[in-house]
Each structure stands twice: as C-alpha cells, then as structure tokens.
Amino acid sequence: MSPIHDQTYRRYQGPRQPPGRAWMVIARDGIRNMLARKLFLAVLLIAWIPFVVRVVQIYVVTAYPVAGQVLGVSTSTYHEFIGQQTTFIFFVTVYVGAGLIAADRRANALQIYLSKPLMRTEYIAGKVGILASFLLFITLLPALLLVIMQVLFAGSASFLTSNLFLIPAIVMSTLVQVIVASFTMLALSSLSKSTRYVAITFAGTVFFTESVYHVLHAITGSTRVAWVSVGGNIENVTDVMFRMTPRYETPVVLSALVLLGLIVLSISVLERRVRGVEVVA
C-alpha cells in the first residue's frame, strides 16, 4: 500500500496578480486562436489591399505632382479609405465575433469562467478585446500608417500641420465603428448558443436597417430617415468628424444618440445574459 501523505491547508505561495488583469488572458488566448486559422489570416491580408493601393496613390502624387490633378490626396482620401474598410469590418466582425460568447454558452463554459476570481466585466472586456483588436488592425492601424507614409513621401509634415484635425478624426471615426460593431455583435452572441444563428442575425440587422432606410427614403423623398440605418448613422457621424458636409439630412446629434443608444442596449443585454449559473445541491 502506498503511504498517505498529510495534505493540510497551506497558504498559496505563488505570485499574485493584481485584480483587473484577467481580461488580458482571455483576449490574448482568443487572438492567438484566431491567428491560427489560415482562412482568417487570408481575410486580414485581403483587408490590407486598399492600404497598398492608397500607398501607391500617395507615392505617385508626391513623386509626380502633375498626377495630383487626377489622383489628388486630401483629407477626403482618408475619409474614403475608412469608408472602404467598412466591408471588411463586417466580415471580420461576423467571422470573429459570432462565436465569442455563443461558443462558451454552448459548452457551458460561463460557469467555469465566472466560478473563478474573474469578474463579469473582465470576461466581457476580454471578449471585446479580441474582436476590437482585429477591427483596429484593419482600420485604425492602416489609416495612421497612411498618414506616416504621406509625411515620409512628401519629406515634410506640412500636410499634417495644415490638417491638424485629421489624426483625431481618424481615431474617433474608427473607434466609433469598432465600438458599435463589437458591442452589438457580443450582445447578439450572448443571446444564442448557435454561432451560425448569431452571424445571420447580425447580418440581418445590418441589411434590414439599411433596407428600411431605402424604403422610407423612396416614400418620403428625404434622407432625414437615415437614422433608422446603423450604417447611415455611422456615416453621418464620420462625415462631421472629417469636417465634411453630412451626406444625410438626419441631424448629426440624432445619429450620435442612436449609436449611443445601441451601445447602451448592447451593454444591458450583456449584463443580463453573461451570468454564472448557481448550482444548488
């Protein structure tokens, strides 16, 4: 018979991590898992093609000033670039975000997560960090790199100093897109155990609100009804950030309030759905 060793209570002697950092573990592990998928890496590479095209455009304009008459580079160039990335934001949001919480619900992993010294806000922050990291990678990062390339090719920062609002506009507009997409998708993901259902619901929400806008626009003949479209509200707010005339007649304040309301609603759904299950013996 093997000896029985006394296993009385002993104080934990290992390193202690300060509270509030557990979300980084979730985010880091989720990012690593997504990067292990070759198909997803291909999507990320494709999302950077517009960046390459814009770099070529900036180089041609700075090297051959005559080309500026056709391929002029201005603040609207960056505005258009961010608009182009909207399509990739949609696909990355669906690919990455649909299963972030739905998969945990299907595997009953929420009980495991929330039974540990892990706050609910840390769990949600970790999931948001996964999706937001990839969305910023295809929006904010390439946009800021374009600004850097503009300065390097021109050999001066005159373009930047003449448009001091450009970098704040890039940062704020991309953050609006990322925050709205991240929280909306996570809220939907928390409502179901089916990743496919979540993806369809998110796509349906985006296309349905856009379709409703087009129907109302055809009936009323006015773009003031653009507030019913999630994409329309983002475009309206982004136009103002880049100091451009809003493309819709909808008041920008109303568009901002709709987006804020969508974020608050998503957070409320997450607060209700992300809970540990209490097991009573």
Question: Would you give an account of this structure?
Answer:
The protein is mostly helical and 281 residues long. The protein has helices at residues 22-35, 38-47, 49-63, 75-84, 86-97, 102-106, 110-115, 120-138, 140-154, 158-162, 166-189, 195-220, 230-241, 252-273. It has one domain (22-58, 72-273). The protein is built from 14 helices and no strands.
- The tally of structural domains comes to 1
Structural class: mainly alpha
What sort of overall outline do the alpha carbons produce when their principal axes are compared?
A: globular
Taking the alpha carbons of the first and last residues, their distance comes to 35 Å
How many H/I helical runs? 14
- How do the SSEs run, as a string of H and E? HHHHHHHHHHHHHH
**Helix share, percent:** 55-70%
Mean pLDDT: 88
- Which assembly state applies to the chains in this document? single chain
Stretches with pLDDT under 50, minimum 5 residues: none
Sheet with the most strands? none
| Radius of gyration, in angstroms, nearest whole number | 23 Å
Give the number of DSSP strands.
0
Percent strand equals under 5%
